[in-house]
Amino acid sequence: MYTKLGVVESRFADIVWSRAPLPAGELVRLCAEELRWKRTTTYTVLKKLSEYGLFHLEKGMVTALVSREDYYASQSEQFVAERFHGSLPAFVAAFTRKKALSQQEVDEIRRMIDAYPGEDRRKGGKS
Description:
By secondary structure, the chain is mainly α. The chain folds into 2 domains: about 5-65, Arc Repressor Mutant, subunit A, CATH 1.10.10.10; about 70-120, Penicillinase repressor fold (Orthogonal Bundle), CATH 1.10.4040. About 65% of the residues lie in helices and about 10% in strands. It has helices spanning about 5-20, 25-35, 40-50, 70-85, 90-100, 105-115, 120; strands at about 20-25, 55-60, 60-65. A 3-stranded antiparallel sheet has the order 1-3-2. It is elongated. The relative contact order is 0.10. The mean pLDDT is about 90.
């Protein structure tokens, strides 16, 4: 479980995720351009997100320890666990109460469900 990022931290993380691995100097330059940050701000936020276990700085190179996809998957799991007692069907029911799904979205969800390996396959058994 990873700490939830604020808006600015998310923008910073997206800069790293979209370019990692990248030299720290390049990250400083990008943050100056895109976020209007000073060098010290970039290193402060990098240190904080490194303590969260998301990134790593070593020998002048910034690497991602967790992918963007894995981070947001973890955040989604945490949201469903906290707000819907871990019930994905309860989340989908709440979501679709206010927003109708398009046929394309329904078809995509159906394909995801059909492709899901199931409990037996994940444990190494047959399904």
